[in-house]
Amino acid sequence: MTSDFRVRVIFVQIKCRPGAAYRVAERIVDRVEATSEIYSTSGSFDLLAKFQLPSEMDPGLFVTSILQPIEDITDTYTIIGFNAFTPQTNPA
């Protein structure tokens, strides 16, 4: 089975300086074209962001050169998505 993947989905958990989560989310939405969704979350990280990267873009380079330099981001944790399972799409 061959697939033609045009985008790569990554999820990034983002830790922010205290009190800066909403400001960081706004900066990401305004500055990062690949942004799909951002949620404020509870737990160890303040935000969970979904990005849709062109297949030729390296996820590590995206995170270290585009996301991490944004003011008030103190830490990130990246998860690469492989298949989406939704009521509309079932790749299995």
Order of helices and strands: EHEEHE
**Gyration radius, to the nearest Å?**
14 Å
Beta-strand residue percentage: 25-35%
Q: Quick one: CATH class?
A: Alpha Beta
Tell me the number of structural domains.
1
CATH topology: Alpha-Beta Plaits
What is the count of helical runs? 2
What does this molecule look like?
This protein has 92 residues and is α+β, with helices and mostly antiparallel strands. The chain is built from 2 helices and 4 strands, in the order βαββαβ. The chain has a single domain, classed as Lrp/AsnC effector binding domain/regulation of amino acid metabolism (RAM) domain (Alpha-Beta Plaits, 2-Layer Sandwich). The chain has helices at 21-31, 59-67; strands spanning 7-16, 35-40, 47-54, 73-80. It has a 4-stranded antiparallel β-sheet with strand order 2-3-1-4, covered by helices on one side. It is globular, with a radius of gyration of 14 Å.
